[in-house]
Amino acid sequence: MMYYTFLYVFLIFVDRIGAGVMHSHSNDIHKERETDGAYSPRDHKHFSEDGEEHHSEFDHEAILGSHKEADEYDHLPPEESKRRLAILLTKMDLNNDSQIDRNELKAWIIRSFKMLSEEEAQDRLEDADENHDGKVTWEEYLADTYGLDNGENSIDFDGENEHLIEDDKTMWKVADGNNDGILDNDEWIAFSHPEEHPIMLPVILEQTLKDKDKDGDNAISFEEYMAGRGNDIAKEELISEKTKFDQQLDKNHDGKLEGNEILSWVVPSNDEIAQEEVDHLFAHSDDNHDDILTFEEILEHHDTFVGSEVTDYGDHLHNIHHFDDEL
Ligand SMILES: *[C@@H]1O[C@H](CO)[C@@H](O)[C@H](O)[C@H]1NC(C)=O
Ligand SMILES: [Ca+2]
Ligand SMILES: [Ca+2]
């Protein structure tokens, strides 16, 4: 029964993709990981896996700092998106010279990333917070995430879940700054985005070692780094992973990953991602190549920054009143 419900929902979804342009401002990144076990970087959906396809949703979220607003802008008439973007620019322009330099844009994007985490955490909190008191208890979390009902001890969870729950509990205790067993809003943000919170880094390191360091020497060898990825890895992939390990991850070239080498592999750098995004946005809009963006250049390329490239907003004109109180 569940299966068919799922299939049905899935088919509707596929149908919607087929019928129009997909505007996906997803926020389901909780604990999403790359194949090597690293936390997925915030821009992991900026390009398709083969790098062929560009998804402007990421750019829009980097400017608006909200999945929901980015989605809403997709349904605005271009003139309205431009009007609102012009207002945002005055806030982005820290020195009030009506131009946006690289530092101003980068600072803005870093601010957006923080707001995106907060929005994602807020959504997750609302899902988990069964009694709506704005905080999450461990029991609420278990019920929401693993479908475990704390009252009845009827759960017969398999080894995989047990392991995940144990790791979650360890994270939970670190995130729970005041040690009352319950996560308030700020504590919950650290728990749901541990990779973005310095206080969580030691526990991330500990858990990575627990997962990968099979011989217990507090370091991760190339073999341990590759473990658990199946035996049928193509030769090219193996070579490219070895190159990455030796040249990028193993910074002191001693053949193994330790401490900060492990963290800089597992924890994506929002600072670097923001820097790349600045380069990307400049490449698309700095028409006269003077390394500064005038408001005119940005507004000329407004759909690079916010809003849909396609004019499918007609159906959604009735949504516009949602924004009346925003800017
Ligand atoms: C820029 O303008 C804003 C708003 O008018 C003001 O608060 C801010 O202090 C100004 N910044 C500078 C560097 O002049
Ligand atoms: Ca400026
Ligand atoms: Ca607490």
Automatic annotation (TrEMBL):
The keyword Glycoprotein applies. Keywords: Calcium, Chaperone, Endoplasmic reticulum, Glycoprotein, Metal-binding, Repeat, Signal. Probable molecular chaperone assisting protein biosynthesis and transport in the endoplasmic reticulum. Required for the proper biosynthesis and transport of pulmonary surfactant-associated protein A/SP-A, pulmonary surfactant-associated protein D/SP-D and the lipid transporter ABCA3. By regulating both the proper expression and the degradation through the endoplasmic reticulum-associated protein degradation pathway of these proteins plays a crucial role in pulmonary surfactant homeostasis. Has an anti-fibrotic activity by negatively regulating the secretion of type I and type III collagens. Coiled coil: none annotated. Residues 80-115, 116-151, 163-198, 273-308 form the EF-hand domain. GO terms for biological process: protein transport. This is Reticulocalbin-3. The keyword 4Fe-4S does not apply. Residues 32-57 are annotated as: Disordered. Residues 46-57 have a biased composition (Basic and acidic residues). It is found in: Endoplasmic reticulum lumen. Its main location: endoplasmic reticulum. Interacts with PCSK6 (immature form including the propeptide); probably involved in the maturation and the secretion of PCSK6. One of its GO terms (cellular component) is endoplasmic reticulum lumen. GO terms for molecular function: calcium ion binding. Gene3D superfamilies: EF-hand. Residues 1-19 form the signal peptide. It comes from Phyllotreta striolata (Striped flea beetle).
